[in-house]
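User: Just a sanity check before I run the rest of the batch. Below are the structure tokens for the first item. I only need the designed sequence back.
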């Protein structure tokens, strides 16, 4: 084979590989886009349900909690949504009910703290 023929074959093969790689990237980006869209849609549905269940003040308090502790706010949202789906919530949740729910969840999840002070007698006492 001639050098020019080899170079032409290499160029075609390189273009084929680039085209295949470009197509796989497009497919991956398409599936990632679909996953992101599904997540966004689920989050929108979740927020819509919460706006129907919670009063304006309760939503505001939950938003402030989410700024500080996002995982705690997500847990409270899950509890409220689950209760609404089971039919335990018949009216909008007020801020007071949300506060009591937060206290209950905090009592269940908090670990009692214990402080032990150990003093070193050798250093503190002077027998001279």
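Assistant: Here's the designed sequence for the first item:
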């Amino acid at each position: 084979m001639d050098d020019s023929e080899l170079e032409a074959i290499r160029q075609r093969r390189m273009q084929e590989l680039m085209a295949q790689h470009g197509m796989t990237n497009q497919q991956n980006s398409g599936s990632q886009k679909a996953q992101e869209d599904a997540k966004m849609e689920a989050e929108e549905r979740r927020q819509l349900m919460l706006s129907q269940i919670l009063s304006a003040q309760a939503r505001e308090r939950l938003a402030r909690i989410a700024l500080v502790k996002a995982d705690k706010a997500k847990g409270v949202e899950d509890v409220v949504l689950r209760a609404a789906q089971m039919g335990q919530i018949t009216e909008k949740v007020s801020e007071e009910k949300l506060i009591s729910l937060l206290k209950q969840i905090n009592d269940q999840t908090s670990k009692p703290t214990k402080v032990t002070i150990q003093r070193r007698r050798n250093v503190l006492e002077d027998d001279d």
